[in-house]
Amino acid sequence: MxxxxxxxxxxxxxMVIGSWTVLEYVGTKGKGxxxxxxxxxxxxxxxxxxxxxLRTGKSTQCQSCSGKQNGRLSLNAQxxxxxxxxSCGPYFKIGxxxxxxxxxxxxxxxxxxxxxxxxxxxxQGYKEPLLHAYFKQYHHWGEWYLIPTFNLISxxxxxx
Length: 160
Ligand SMILES: [Zn+2]
Fold this sequence. Notes:
This protein is α+β, with helices and mostly antiparallel strands. 26% of the residues lie in helices and 30% in strands.
């Protein structure tokens, strides 16, 4: 993600910061002397965003995409999460993430055993809790399951 250095006063039009695309400068608002920039989120929402929040990377998407509604993920944010299945020896991990590749890289870093990416199902992250319930009897710990074959999981993804 782009984070502008503080000394850069001007944010170039069209610059992409997280999910925002910078559209135009709208001027200063309120008591603060911060400038505001009209930004469009990837979902299409347009909002005036405080320049300092853009520069520091504190604002990277609109409120509905950040999904923080009463501390729970909104349906919209859940839909954007991807389902991933990785295996490590006989164990499978059923997880969801908005960035499965990064998540799986993190797992590899934290694990001395090879982690194999079995499948990533785009936009199906909402199935994670359903699959956890489905494979309850195979639960090992955390998000790890001792499931006999990956086929059982791929079938379950279609079923739930
Ligand atoms: Zn958005």
